[in-house]
Write a structure and sequence with these properties.
By secondary structure, the protein is of the alpha/beta class. Bound molecules: calcium ion (CA). The site of calcium ion (CA) has 8 residues, from loops.
């Protein structure tokens, strides 16, 4: 089959080799192919990988997101920072270390961070993710050691070391990112982008309207949405459409490899769990956020003002999206308020509203195949 681009060639080659050697070898091979083709076709430029810090609470779908990131040469994962959410902080750190070790990537710092949300009790979800957070699949003990730095400090340090280059990809509650912001607000203009898995402008998965990552720390989320940096919100509006079902599992199980096989077990666990509730498949929440960090064209976004509800009786943790970026202006007149016009509000987030789910699911399967 013809390869569409050098990027595709890189991905195919590196996807089957361990990184960083895999990427280097793949890039070298691509370079030689391009040199050989130079006389007949204009050379393509191989884009530099995107530097990312992934803030995570593994978590079954986090595990898939981590593997996808490590299998994608478009990304240069500078660190994994760990936050409690799906499981406790200690369990999440242990799981991240085991995953990174399984992938043979102890060169990537893994740092623990917050122990609990900013202003509420921690809510864990072993019911959904298994008692160990990884679908009760027991991974070997990690050969990697945790970085001694506090995750928010590591985030601050790396952003300053690479101004304008770091994309933050938080796929858990936003506690660590909010702590980094609070400690050093000067990081805001130095961050390239923040791709958040979280929120929804249509439906919830914890309550009628709240998505888990936002619900688990609404005060942190409000701070992150209002920081002033570029936020892309990959929420349930799109992740619920990336339904990984039996046909996808069949494809994943048809190829073999240590990471491939682990992914198969995790996806089997999630599909079985979903079946108990009458669902035919399971959404790929966190992997889609990583996918969007790699290729923003997986989703279509709308720029809108998003507020995080922190007080509502039924709506705490809701991401309230203002589709038109307008609010009514009311002014006191006697004993009443009188509408006197319309005020514009500044949009603060690019909210993903549509997704090319089939293309993303195929992309995920291609990256996992034989890994
Ligand atoms: Ca997560």
């Amino acid at each position: 089959m013809a390869l569409r681009s050098s990027r595709e060639l890189v991905s195919r080659l590196a996807g089957r080799l361990s990184r960083p050697a895999g990427t280097a070898v793949a890039l070298a091979l691509v370079a030689s192919v391009l040199v050989a083709a130079a006389s007949t076709a204009p050379a393509e430029t191989v884009a530099a990988p995107i530097s990312v810090i992934i803030d995570t609470d593994p978590g079954t779908d986090d595990a898939m997101a981590i593997l996808l990131a490590l299998a994608s040469p478009e990304l240069d994962v500078k660190a994994f920072t760990v936050v409690p959410g799906n499981v406790t902080a200690d369990q999440a750190l242990d799981n991240t270390l085991r995953l990174v070790s399984l992938a043979g990537r102890c060169d990537i710092p893994v740092a623990g961070g917050a122990q609990r949300p900013l202003a509420q009790k921690l809510i864990t979800a072993e019911f959904v993710h298994g008692e160990n957070g990884l679908g009760d699949i027991e991974l070997p003990a990690s050969d990697c050691e945790a970085d001694a730095r506090f995750a928010p400090d590591l985030i601050i340090e790396m952003i300053h070391a690479m101004p304008g280059r770091i994309t933050l990809v938080p796929v858990g509650p936003l506690t660590n990112i909010a702590l980094a912001l609070h400690k050093d607000p000067t990081i805001v203009p130095l961050v390239k982008e923040v791709v958040v898995m979280g929120g929804s402008i249509t439906e919830g998965n914890v309550t009628a309207v709240a998505e888990a990552n936002i619900y688990n720390d609404p005060e942190a989320a409000q701070a992150v949405f209002h920081a002033g940096w570029k936020v892309t919100m990959v929420g349930l509006d799109v992740t619920h459409k990336t339904n990984f079902g039996a046909p996808h599992l069949e494809r994943l199980a048809a190829t073999r490899g240590t990471l491939n096989d682990f992914a198969t077990e995790v996806m089997q666990f999630l599909i079985d769990l979903s079946a108990q509730f009458g669902a035919d498949g399971t959404p790929m929440h966190d992997p889609l956020a990583v996918g969007v960090a790699i290729d923003s064209s997986f989703v279509r976004t709308r720029h809108m003002r998003v507020e995080v509800e922190t007080k509502g009786e039924f709506t705490r943790g809701q991401t309230v999206g203002n589709r038109y970026n307008m609010v009514e202006r009311n002014e006191i007149e006697g004993d009443r308020l009188k509408m006197t016009g319309i005020d514009r509000v500044e949009p603060n987030a690019w909210v993903a509203v549509e997704v090319d789910a089939d293309r993303f699911l195929s992309f995920f399967l291609e990256r996992m195949a034989g890994l």
